[in-house]
Amino acid sequence: MRLFGVLFRLAWRNLWRNHRRTIIMLGAIGVGVWAMIFMTALTRGMVDQMIIDSIAVLPGHVQMHHPDFPDDPSVSNRMLISEADLKKKFDGAGFKAWAGRVRVPAVISSERESRGVTLLGVDPDAERGISFFNYDEVDGRFLVDASDQGIVIGRRLAETLETGIGKRVVLMSQDPDNEIADRGFRVIGLYSANTKAVEEAYAFVGKATVQKMLHIGDTTTEVVFLSDDYRNVEATFQAVMSATDESVSVRRWYEIDTYLGTMLGVMDGFVLIWIVVIFLALSFGLVNTLVMAVFERVREIGLMLALGMKPGSILGQIIIESMLLLTLGLAAGNFLAWATIVPLQDGIDISVVADGLEMWGVSSMLYPKLYASDMFLATGVVLLLGFLASLSPAWRASRYVPVEAITKV
Amino acid sequence: MSAVRCVDLCKTYRQGDQDIKALDHVSIDIAKGQFVCLSAPSGGGKTTLLNAIGGLDIPDSGEVYIAGERIDNLNKGELADIRLKQIGFVFQAYNLIPVLSARENVEFVMQVQGVPSAERIKKSTAILKEVGLEGLEDRRPAEMSGGQQQRVAVARAVASRPALVLADEPTANLDSKTADELMALFTELNEHHNTTFVIATHDQRVMTYAGRLIRMLDGRIVDDINQRAA
Description:
The complex is a heterodimer.
Chain A: H1 4-15, H2 19-56, E1 62-65, H3 83-90, E2 97-109, E3 114-122, H4 124-127, E4 139-140, E5 150-154, H5 155-161, E6 168-174, E7 180-191, H6 196-201, E8 202-206, H7 207-214, E9 222-226, H8 234-243, E10 249-252, H9 253-256, H10 258-296, H11 298-306, H12 311-341, E11 348-349, H13 354-358, E12 365-366, H14 372-398, H15 402-405
Parallel strand pairs in A: 3-8, 5-7
Antiparallel strand pairs in A: 1-9, 1-10, 2-3, 2-6, 2-9, 4-7, 5-8, 6-7, 11-12
Helix pairs in contact in A: 1-12, 2-10, 2-12, 2-14, 10-14, 12-14
Chain B: E1 2-15, E2 18-31, E3 35-39, H1 46-53, E4 61-66, E5 69-70, H2 76-86, E6 87-90, H3 102-113, H4 117-130, H5 146-159, E7 164-168, H6 176-193, E8 196-201, H7 204-207, E9 212-217, E10 220-226
Parallel strand pairs in B: 3-8, 3-9, 6-7, 7-8
Antiparallel strand pairs in B: 1-2, 1-4, 4-5, 9-10
């Protein structure tokens, strides 16, 4: 430790001895780190949006079903828990939001076309804050309450069925006795979603209206819960678990949509690989700079060894020099990343490639996400790999034979 | 106890197809406080002997003792410790660390030794004054003349009060006036601090300052004169 002061001073001054080379290297590190963080923010934003959109398209963060419902999502596998019991269990239990739904497969028919859809019987008040709906953007109107007699379908589905607001459609499904349950509805609203696939998939009807149509009293097929952050749903999951028994199945969003769950894990791996790949490119410059710096100072290093400095201290000096260079580059890169990402956080319009992105469930607005954890990861990886990369030139310097080094021309 | 004792040192270098005997069964004994000049023509073995004494080079055979401790069988780290604590070096050229000021160069060895800051400043101030560099403490080597740089190197070599100072051709790059001033400084430090000096040189004028003159030729000692007695 007593040596750190002199090693730091030597490393710092040697760094600025060839200031042009140092500035060029700092620029390269800064741009490299910026690229690491900026690209990570874009990708994070894309995947986050994809996950958030997908979660908003009904899964919520935690869901509760009859244990057989995931494999056979029919009304026969509804939960035999009354509306009053659900409210007793979950109201005031600290959830950000929760809602009970009737979710069954159905066929919707206009006078011209028929399509298979997922019929959702919802209570619009409870759904606010959970689902993807921007209620202000529904053409016509959304459901007023759980007893609303109208139906809201997606714009794309309306086009397919060649129907529209004010027209009538017929919904057909099965009741618990496997009898056909059908009913006519007037289209009261057309919703928009981030992807056309969603607009074709779901039809919204008042929950009480559907319960009556299916003859299921006030029972539901699923209950959805929302927590503060999709990355941290464990507390919500545990709270639901502790409030329920084995008659229901409780699952987290990434267990419901394994594709999205896998995507999140892949994303973390991708970020790390991306950072390492960029650093590998940078490391050539870093090692070259250090090798040149050591090569130019052979006699000086020989002198320090001759005066009694131990090889380990020479090693330390070169590594400190490398770490200083990286730290300055990291500071510049992190600042640059922050300064360029923050102004873009309101979104980047990528609608020009929206059709291509839709198959991935990605919307046409990209919101870069700057996470401190990604900045720490980039900083940590660069420092760790930089340390490893600088070991070779530092080791060579520490192995000089003083009497040979000091006479080197 | 001897400040330096070498017993039957041999060192051979290979140059092309030829083996050059740089040291050929050299034995010397230097008492504490002596001012010794090693004199030889180029290739005579004086620098090799100086390097062996300073632990910078390991002889092929023979033994080297510094203040009674055998050093030829020590590892790199232990040799570095001996050099740090017991020996001061003045080299022919490229003596200073370019990115450090005169004061920082003088303090360098003491800092590596772990001498507290206040003591370092006190000692470096005093020694820089003693070598006539008062007021130039903050100059970097590139801002000083060759003579001034050698004075800084001498100041560094003696600042931590080593028992032994080894100097290899310290006046080679200096004009005669500066060389005389430097030798006068060595003499003064030798007398004042009772530091043992071993100087390798082929400069006749430098030899006149020495109390003891050891002449070498082809790696062997051919003459050992006590000039004070003479």
